[in-house]
């Protein structure tokens, strides 16, 4: 598979990642590595993707998400000699804000999983990409990282870390052939947001979100809000005066 597009997805069993993977498998010959924590889910996803591509190759790997050494080991196991075309880092969880406020261990875990861990994966993969001067690293953050709000500031803080990290990474990679794409979805219809959906929240279809993400990655777009309306919404939220913002129940 010398001419196959080489794609790695970290957090591959997340709903957005699954739909991105399905679209890539339809684009042509692909060699894809799926990284996750649940071997059963990974195997089922691999079977699904293989069925969608006559000549694609899909492999699975159990990854570590909680420490730098484990993350480095996961990266080294799949990038010793190969040139990577796309790495999508998509893992995370929608933090329970109230629980994080009352349980410091949970707060630490959520900050690490949603912020530090994706940044470490990105840093490790970028080292490999820079050695080849080729590839695109894409990280799914969130609109929640644009301004801290009382309803989800632990999750938002982790995603804000990713935003600043990716800005610096893009600056570092300027002028090279390695691209860094920061993805900021708004609320999306996935199992992670089931509670929001039950409360009547309007959520973006995950298939549409994935389509936008795949197009942005293929184009090497620096920052993409999904859906695009969130760019305007969050610009307004970021610039609201504090005396107005503090009266809002968001």
From TrEMBL:
GO CC term, one of those recorded: membrane
Domain of life: Bacteria
Keyword Magnesium: no
Alphabetical keyword list: Oxidoreductase
InterPro entries found in the cross-reference section: NAD(P)-bd_dom_sf, SDR_fam
Gene3D superfamilies attached to this UniProt entry: NAD(P)-binding Rossmann-like Domain
GO molecular function: oxidoreductase activity
Entry's family note: Belongs to the short-chain dehydrogenases/reductases (SDR) family.
Name of the molecule in the record: SDR family NAD(P)-dependent oxidoreductase
Source species: Zwartia hollandica
